[in-house]
Amino acid sequence: MFSSFINHPPHYFFGYIALSVDHYENFPVASVILPKYLRAPIETIYRFARSADDIADATDLPPDFKRDRLAFFRTELKQIKSDAPPLTPLFSELSILISQYKLPIGLFFQLLDAFEQDLNVKRYENFTRLEEYCANSANPIGRIVLHLFGHTDEEYLIWSDSICTSLQIINFLQDVKDDYDLGRIYLPKDEMDSFGVTEDHIKNRIFDLHWLNFMNFQLDRANRYLDDGSNLYENLPRRLGIEIKMIVKSGLQVITKLNASRGNVFVTDHKMNSLDFIKILYQTAFRT
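Above: the chain sequence. Below: its structure as tokens.
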């Protein structure tokens, strides 16, 4: 699930380590804008997500072995929850982090739920089901970051959820081919049917009017979700606000790239490049 984002080391990106760590190569995690004292905690969370993702997405491991390994992760979290010492160094670090910053451990269980779901659920009947998946795979990371900074007002959490869900959806759209190769389609089936899109469009890389209209609909919704969450960076302290604004602008930039190609994800690379990041950093940090 989190392979493409996770291929990048944490010092290149901001703490939304996951809106699907497989889907987040586009969006800044522990950048230099963040205070130094939070970079180590963010890297620990990153390693937790990365380790679980490596298990869930491994193509050379039997499904039962993957389930057993993720079950062990769940056991380690239960150790932390019961104030018992974990067995592994990673979870020992995580235990200290959770205690120090009073992070809700349920958010980490939600991330595991999403990894385990990837082993069992390969299709999504409607957007409600997909949104429920995002609530576990993406939204917990935004909430963890806000808890690290001590900004946990309910409206902040809701705005964060909207941003995280949008970024997850954007990456589902641009990573359609890669996900299909892993046997998964993170697109609402009822909406595919409504626009005349079938799995053959993905399998055979068919770009036609049906696919174009379907992608326009998906991108419009992702844009609305980003817009709904924009109040978050406007209400946070400058440093964190700038970081989150960069993330939102990155999402908007990918939407722009996807629209420019008319949603043709089969032949065009829509990933963010270094110039995109520099442009967004300049526009956000120096012109805010």
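Residues 3-285 form a domain with the Farnesyl Diphosphate Synthase fold (CATH 1.10.600.10).
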